Amino acid sequence: MDLFLDRSQRRTIGVQLYGQLREAIERGRLLPGDRLPPSRQLADELGIARHTVTTVYGRLAAEGFIDGHAGAGSVVTTTVTADHTLDGASDLTSDGAASMSATTTAATAPTAAPKMRRASVDPPVRFDLRVGAPDPELFPLVDWRRAVTWSLQRPPSMPPDPEGDIDLRRSITRWIGRSRSVVAGVDQLHLTAGAQQAFDLVARALLRSGDVVAVEDPGYHLARRCFEVAGARIVGIPVDDHGLVVDAIPSDARLVYTTPSHQMPLGVTMSMPRRVELLALGRRSDLVIVEDDYDSEFRHVDRPLEPLHRLDRGERVVYVGSFSKTLGPALRLGFAVVPRALVDPLRELRAAVGWQPPATDQSALHRLITDGSFDRHLRRTRRVYAERHRELRAQLAAHPDSFTGIPTNAGLHITAWLPHGCDEAAAVAAARDRGVAVECLGAYRIAPGARGALAIGFGTIASNAIADAISTLADAVGAAR
Ligand SMILES: Cc1ncc(COP(=O)(O)O)c(C=O)c1O
Question: How far, in whole angstroms, is CA 216 from its chain's centroid?
Answer without folding.
Answer: 21
